[in-house]
Amino acid sequence: MTEIKRISFSELKNWSECPYRHKLVYIDKLPHFSGNEYTAFGTAIHYVCENIVVGYTSKVFPPDNIIKIFMKKFDEEINKLTCDINEQLISDMKKQGEDLVGYILPELKNTFKKYEVTSVEEQLLEDIDEIESYGRKFKGFIDLVIKTPDGKYHVIDWKTCSWGWDSRKKTAPMTTYQLTYYKHYFAKKHKINPDNIETYFALLKRTAKKEKVEIYRVTSGEKKIQNSLKMLEKAVINIEKKNYIKNRLSCKYCKFYKTEHCT
Questions:
Q1: Closest Cα partner for 244 from 32, 34, 14?
Q2: Distance between CA atoms of 5 and 181, rounded to whole angstroms?
Q3: Exposed (0-12), middle (13-18) or buried (19+): which is 256, by Cβ within 10 Å?
Q4: Which residue spans within 12-130 are E strands per DSSP?
């Protein structure tokens, strides 16, 4: 059976940071990251979001139940880790998560008022035929799509973080392009006018003292969509042609730096 050629946003981001590291991870399949306390926390919070937004009622998900969902999932994810763990950090994260989860639904309701859930964890696997893609499909998972009474679809991506994002990160192209691709290929999948789709990051802040959940809109007009597709095309062409250039500016935090794989 022929394997479907695909590319995800995380793969594209990896390539944009260092094409050679992309080769090591996606072509050579070298182990590169197996998770830590922060990814375990993020997975547990995402799991809470996924479970409570569908069919929510106060009887099904009172605050105690939401906390139990988080704690159970967080413990499961911690137990999967193969790295050394920081017990104090885990203890702090449990307190932070216990506090944070109670703000998620209220902020969603405060931002959008009335809405219906369209999909949760919706998979995208769409043909990239607007540009040269060598038969690749765009792969992604949209955390949440809701629809408001005005007919608008709202694509939301949950992001766990410490205290939040500064304005520079909020507007950085390689941050916001994720939502641009989601909007474009969600519209394509469902044959929806892109003008009827809005996109948002929902920041779930682990250490913030206030505004623990911040939902902010990211705009993606036609020019931005075209710019994002040009970047996608550039990546696909270079991957196909095996142009694995090392970006020395990305070496500092790279696991492969000064190893037998990258000297």
A1: 14
A2: 17
A3: middle
A4: 116-127
Radius of gyration of the chain (CA): 20
Compute the distance between CA of residue 194 and CA of residue 187 in angstroms, rounded to an integer.
6
For residues 83 and 50, the answer to whether their CB atoms sit within 8 Å is no
Angstrom distances, CA of residue 47 to CA of 66, 93, 118, 258: 10, 15, 17, 37
Which residues contact residue 140 at a Cβ distance below 8 angstroms, ignoring those fewer than 6 apart?
8, 9, 123, 124, 181, 182, 185
Instruction: Give, to the nearest 10 degrees, the angle between helix 63-80 and helix 87-100.
Output: 150
- Residue 187's nearest CA partner among 148, 224, 153, 230 is 153
137-152 pLDDT, tens digit each: 999 999 999 999 999 9
Alpha helices by DSSP H, 81-151: 87-100, 104-112
**Paired sense of beta strands 6-8 and 137-147, if any:** parallel
Q: Are the C-beta atoms of residues 28 and 254 closer than 8 Å to each other? A: no
d(CA 249, CA 21): 12
Domain 6-242: which CATH number of 3.40.50.261, 3.30.70.20, 3.90.320.10, 3.20.20.80: 3.90.320.10
CA neighbor of 135 nearest in space, from 3, 1, 2, 5: 5
Let me know if 3 is exposed, middle or buried by CB neighbors in 10 A (0-12, 13-18, 19+).
Answer: exposed
What is the tens place of the pLDDT at every residue in 54-111?
Answer: 765 445 556 568 999 999 999 999 999 998 999 999 999 999 999 999 999 999 999 9
